Records
---
Amino acid sequence: MSLILGILDSGAAAAAASSYESIATVTVGSGGTASITFSSIPATYTHLQIRGIARNSNASAGGLSINMQFNSDTGSNYSYHYLGTYQGEGTAAWAGGTANESFIVPFLMPTNSLGASIFSAGVIDILDYANTNKYKTIRGLGGYDMNGATTGYNYLNLNSGNWRSTSAITSIKLYGSTANFMQYSQFALYGIKGS
Amino acid sequence: MASTYEKIATTTLSSAAASIDFTSISGSYTDLVIIGSIKTATLTNPACYVRFNGDTGSNYSVTNLYGNGTTAGSTRFSTQTFIRYNYVTDPNTTNFAPVIMNINNYSNATTYKTALTKFGLASIGLDNTVGLWRSTSAITQVTFTLESATNFATGCTFTLYGIKAA
């Protein structure tokens, strides 16, 4: 196959031959799982990217956030902002932010209340993750459409997040705000090398 | 380590065409990324469509987030015969507009397929969309068209990439 050159956008990360590498993948089996953790992440890349699909087993109506923590830090050391559309039924964009949170929300996922077989899709970029001089910044793009289902469905988000730590990121935990990731949810971690 | 981000195919139009089509897409990747650059040969302001596997049924829907220079807003379309990935950013005959589409887990035979798309023109605005295809079939074909049988102009290009997870 040909080389991929150039700087692309979120979900289409920069890559040359072998500069975009698969590190690990988790596919949720029957019975689901409450969380997914990528651990022992090597510091040999410049950036990380997580790509995935997700659905939550909670039966309540609406979407649920996917929460993300680094290095098992459960303290109030995170913040995030979001710009998106909520329900998508009106004409307003949806924006906000949360400070001193114990997690970052990169994107959302549908619950198991309606729309069987519908999973959200998302791409998360974690920039300069191994740098020990910077707080860590992420951006997320994700969402799902439920074909016009009623209140509480259809999300699309562009999110940013910050972890106030200079530690290199060596583990990443993803979990729902309640219940489990359902079977067939999948997250894949990739490493992107610089020069 | 082997590359996990590979170019599958590129189409660059040497003459105007009504559609751009990727066929016989292998199921050996995890995700697809499509990067395009489009303008129209004639009609300005057409809607931009994508379909999968030649399905012309009412099996698509889309939620859109847009900005037009003064306002951010959203809209949505249910039970469509295509995913419309533009709302405020209509292509024209003058400037090429970039398209970036992510289709995660395109080849599984269990879930409906979701496509995330970014589209924009600096002179008009930008669109972000999440589109749903209500089919559990693996995606083997992706077809881009324009409203009212408008042609893509000469020089339009689309490249299809595959990302393979370990």
---
Amino acid sequence: MTNPVEQTKQAIDHMIAFVEQSPWRANYLEKLQSLKSQAEQPCVLAVAGRVKAGKSSFLNALLGKDMAKVGTTETTATINVFRKGTAPDPNRPVLVVWANGQQRFETSEFLDSLQGNDEATLQKAEGIKRLEFLLSDPIFDDVTLVDTPGTDAIVGEDGEVHQKVTEEYFNLRQRHGEETKEQTESADAVIYLIGQVANAGMQGFLQEFQAATNGGSSAMNAIGVMAKIDLSDEIMNQRDELASSIALKMQHELNTVVPVSAGIWRALDELRKNNKLERMQQKLKNLPREGFDYLMKQERAYYSTSSVFDRIFSSSKKPPISIEERKELKGDIPWRVFVVIAHYLYNDPLEEAITKLTDISGVNRVMDIIQKHFFNRGKLLRCFRISNALRSILNDIERNRLYELGKEVRSRKEFEDFINSHPRMGNNNATALKLMNFLKAYLKTEKEMDELRVTIQTILIPEVENLQLKLERTDENFRALQLIEQNISLFSKEEQDELFALFGMYGGTKEGIDADTCGRRQQYWNLELNLSRSKDRRMVARHAISAYGYYD
Amino acid sequence: MNKIGIDFGTSFSTASWINPKTRQPEAITFHDISMQKMPSVVYYGPDGVMVGLAAYSQLENSSGMKPEHRHQILQSVVMSIKRHMKQGHFYYFPGGGKASHEEIIAAILHKIKEQAEIACFNGQPVEEATITHPVVFASWQKEMLREAAALAGFKHVQLLEEPVAAALGYASTTSEKIKNVLVYDFGGGTFDAAFVQHDGEGQFRVPLEPEGDAYCGGDDIDEALYDRWEQVAKEQHNRTIDMNPNNRDISFKVKCRKHKEQMSLFPKYDFAEVLPPPGVSWVEMQLTRPDFDKMVEPIIEKTIVRTQRLLRKVTDSGYKIDTAIMIGGSSRIPVVYEKLKQILPVEPRKVMQVDVAVALGAVLYNPDGLQEIRHKQVFCIYCGCKISTADKFCMNCGRSSISFNATT
């Protein structure tokens, strides 16, 4: 399928071009233009995570932008939306949407007054529905970011439970829970971010994710991110095992779980920008194996002289590395991040090391999953809604406007006949001429009407119907997946695997299934359609029959 | 040329012809089953294709069969094809057979054609048909209907929107002028509400997008009754209707349909049924009309909400309703009438033949209705010149559109 978003925009453009030339410009132009802007709207990405989960550094890595530099200040007690736009007054850059529906632009001083966790601030935050930051950075052409405080937001700095358990605190917390749910349900993609975990084992992460999603997430649009995996060697070493076992345990709440190190991403990015990677590798490779291992064991050892280290060097022929050189090499990279990077640079050729490190940082993987599984689908579903709106407009034109025009055309004909045949108005009569010109200016002829009709029926309607048909399949697959997700216990493990692949979740497709298998599986689901007691299961069977019925 | 009207429905199809003796449209009673409603079901078995009641009976009788045989039958049946029709799609059947959606629809249309020829036309071929379709059908869906009709052997086919057919059919049964009609069509599988307007020039049209629910019909009421029986079976025998708790017994569901029909006739009824094999276990249940009404409430309510939405659209667009008709088998349920009465600006009319109302209108349809109007010769009241009602102005004096009838 050619890009359906482009196809949708094209269909809208064709309709706009048609309507502009038609007698119905005033009726539809505005609506069509608003549809067009909807088609171009960015996808919504919501991020939910606890304070200090490493959200800002993760977002910086994900979006490739320093969010603080593009003009955002974090407030911890509100829902923050970052989207494309320009504030009318640059001194009042933030749109505050109050819970009572009022909207006002405010200054950055106002934002400062929202920092902190004291009672007064919380009270103030309670009246705010969300803050909207209107930004001009091109990254926001494609994505609108919703930063939600999550369901467990008002935990003090560094995860300490807030001391004053006030009424405001409870109200705010409850409302945040509801609003986060509202925001995440309408978002195209949601990331649940978990940072440091006290009990770093599988159980600890699982508990954190369960607390963060709070039963409100769905594998249809959510993924989990274990941030800051660089903080512990233990987690670092078994990150993939941890992630996949959590993903399995929460397969209906989260599409997948990705281990991420924004620290590695950022350091790598910085080092590459300054062309320091190669030099760093040369320096490190100069070290003998034991020397390298010794230095990397502990941060304290790295910065100090020791007899052990000297002994290692005296036995090798290589020149020792001075403490100054070591300091310069590490720079301001956090120690654990430095160890991981140094390790790969020491063991692998440069390109390979970069690839491996990028992979470990996990940032590209997150973006990939979001694009492939959520944004693309979100766009398709939005296009489907738009194509339905286009069809409605065409219906209205076909059923009503053309009908009214038909009446008009007939009366023009009657007038013309009358003028032509009236004995007192000859062909050259000035009044007759004036009347004829009037008719020409205000009423269409049959030929003109037929031209409009032909354009609508043979060009515009088939184009939109064609588009609808293509998008409908995506919509159907989406609904089938939703039904399975909601009734997961009605499907055996084998059925789940089959259907998830069939309806395209986790990137699966029907491709590679031969016609025979298609037929057999269709018969299986046709049997289920007639046998099963559950209406939802029958509905899924319906979708499966349809999906298997088309083989090309 | 022999002509019939066909209402190709999701659950049932009906047809009509114009009886030359009375010159009135009549529902066709299918010769082989002596019924006016034919299930829109096709069975592609090892020994050939069965359509309509024969195919439906296969389902109905399946629960007493051996599991392999039962499964083979359930895999060979196609139901509600209208709701799911798609171009280029196929059904595959046990034994290696396959059929395109067009072929499946053609099988149903062909059966209707064949039965009509026997029942009404002395075996003479019927080559012309008007087939109705939902207003929301896309052009490719209409094209599929045309293709299916051609496959079925029809030579001339016209398509007509269902509510328009209903309005046409209703208009033919009354001497009143029908102008602005709300059509409430509650069928076996689907619900549709549409506003139909007579344009004063011989044609009905649908100016507003209709409201509907593709998954709300009599079938859902059968399901609700089935669920009730499940409770009864649990209480009286501590088992599910089908011995497998995840399954539904399709034969027993057919019985539920009959129970539903009873509840439209009687204010109270004592039902007794035997549960499907193994064993012989009787289950008994008494239903009163209020019980039943309460049970079907959520389903009926869906149709009421849709109708209200349509009513709002009608008012917002400056139209008004002067007639409301109820058609479709499920509109027989008494509580439907009660509920509709509360929300409609006019008294809803119960149509005589709810099941075939659409088909009756279909056969009456004449796409050239516009030219059917006969203009009268009249005289201009100013100059007395002879003019036609087709003219808006007097051709002679040009002064007035007011005219008086010719006395001749």
